[in-house]
Amino acid sequence: MQRRQFLGLLGATAATAVLGKAAQAGPKHFTGYPDSFGVLFDATRCIGCRRCEAGCNRVNHLPAPPRPFDDLSVLDTRRRTDARTFTVVNRYPTARGPVYRKNQCQHCLEPACASSCFVAAYAKTPQGAVIWDEKVCVGCRYCMIACPFDIPTFEYANPWSPKIMKCHLCHPHLTAGKLRVPGCVGACPTEALVYGRRADLIREARQRFHLFPGRYLDHIYGEHEMGGTNWLYISGVPFSQIGLREDLGVTPAPEFTSGALAAVPIIAAAWPALLLGIYAISQAKDKAARQEKREALTEALARAQAKCEAELAKVKAKAEADKKAAIEREVKKALEEAAKAQAAKEEGE
Amino acid sequence: MSGEHAPSTPVAADKASLLTPFNIVTGLIVFVGLILTLLRFTKGLAGVTNLSDNNPWGIWISFDLLCGVALAAGGYTTSAACYVFGLKRYHSAVRPAILTAFLGYALVVFALHYDVGRPWRLPYPIFYSPGPTSVLFEVGLCVFLYLNVLFLEWTPSALEWLGLKKWRNVMVKMTLALTIFGVVLSTMHQSSLGALFLIAPSKLHPLWYSSYLPVFFFISSIAAGLSMVIFEGTLSHRYLHDKMDEHYLSAHDQVHLGFGRGAAVVLVIYFFLKLVGLALDNTWHYLLTGYGAMYSLELLGFVALPALLYAVGVREKNLKIIRWAAVLTVLGIVLNRFNVSWFAFNWQLPAAERYFPSWMEVAVSIYIVTVGLLLFRFIATRMPIFHEHPDFKEAEPEEEPHAHETRPHPQSFGH
Fold first, then answer.
1. Which residue of B202, B355, B406 to mutate against A (max A Cβ within 10 Å)?
2. Interface predicted TM-score (ipTM)
3. A66-100, pLDDT tens digit by residue?
4. Which parts of B45-134 fold into alpha helices (H)?
5. Which of A326, B130, B206, B225 has its CA 20 to 30 A from that of B245?
6. What is the pTM of this model?
């Protein structure tokens, strides 16, 4: 029962691995759900007003921050997302003066968090958002290890039902019809944030490159990074200067582990055969050794027996001879005595 | 350990035996552990750990999980050597190794209850909502199944102790199947623990990040398992000597010599594989950095050196050298797992954002090891672990010419 279940699960894993591979190995590579939505962030337009943070906080009913959203002194220190904050804006000193960048979940096309989750709590929706399901999460935090953007956060202070907290691109609010654009986008006063179809956003970004020569670097961050993300950035300064890593590469995270996972069914299939083979060989060797020992023993026994018998025969023969000689001796003696007696008798007469 | 004193009166002996240094120290540790357990489940992880959003895994993963599993590898290596490879001269080492592995894995799972957010959901990945794209799913599934296998492999000792002859014989008949299943599962999850970090190439230092990580973890676990059998055998020999029978004691040195030879070979293979890893990713230039010094220390001081010591020890038949090599290897495995999951993980972060455990995290880890030690002692002093049960002697009959013909089943050559 347990074994069959295990094999079934292995089969499922194998199928996933094989299908996953096949999908990747084909000439087509996954470029995200068609018509999925995302946000384009323009670093040349962001003024660091933190209204997006306030908008996010409001629509998601997150706890009030320690310092109010109009207190811009928080920009003096570098901040990251945490269990009460889905998005933060940071200020980066650059050659072109201070540049602001908003950070939140990038909503990868092929998310590391979803790939790494052992209870499939994460899902990439066809609309573009990467969402998380509280009902199955165990709280192992492997998604936080896996995320190349350090986005998922954890309620460490919650002893019984800690949740993973991260931006969900307002997916629940948008699908419920409560919002038309994500909370942050709706709150942005400078149109540094644009919500729309990812394909349109990429076109829009290129258009801006074209319309404002010299204002932007010719790169849309998120178009290809980690296989592509639904959140896109354009900037006038190198992305590494505004806290976006440029060394992540373009490989989607699931590909990093697909090879290792594909090896699993091979081990499950090949190892028992190999081990049984080794066992059979060792058994055969033992058997041969025992056989040899037994044969040697039998042979030695036979040899000893033969030797013994020969000895015995010799002794027997000798004894026989001795006996014969003794009898002869006795007979001779008796005869001699008889002859003597005869002679004495004749003399007496 | 305890009860070493000559009892003058029974009452005095009872009182004295409870207040040995061993009992006082372990009692204190367990007491602190229980208080921290309470704290963990009332204040949350934030109440006892230094974990953060940047550093979601601390020493409860680095030590309790990664080292715990690697150092419990003696179970599958020893039982494979004895039952699959037919090296029956290691028979006496099987039971202690299986017991260590069983307790080791049980404690790994126990420790995870502290680390994960909702421990009562730990069965979810297997029974409720599997996520088979995750390496952690494979780890979870294999560890769960292997814990069951180890439990079954351990039951003959308990059943002999309880005198349940029939059940004991049933379990012993399953030895070969369980051993093979155990090796398969161990291969998979020992390697998968390394594969866990494959998904984060941007966070693990290039010297340790390698597509060979699963292979490194698997091969090094064999060395860890062999060395732990030697290390732990040495400790048991000192402290549980009175529980050992002729059979165990006479085989003891031979086991250590044989395992030392095996460990030397495995460590040499591992050493060269690590070099191949460096060559494959062409990360040689990092060797001249600070992390390179750490890497060299790990590879030269805790892989190459113990390999050499093992080789010398085996050649000279010097058990003292072999035991030192075992200690070095065990420390080296701990260092390697710490490097991959802690020291070289998140190396891109500024020093202020790096992880360092709180004393409470360390105390919980010590508490869990102590619980393991106590359980091991409890079982080893009662059940036939270091000796054969008088009713179930099966060690020697190999030499009797007729013995094998009367055996009902090839697998039943003792457990």
1. B202
2. 0.86
3. 889 989 999 989 999 999 999 999 999 999 899 99
4. 45-48, 59, 68-71, 74-79, 91-115, 124-127
5. B225
6. 0.85
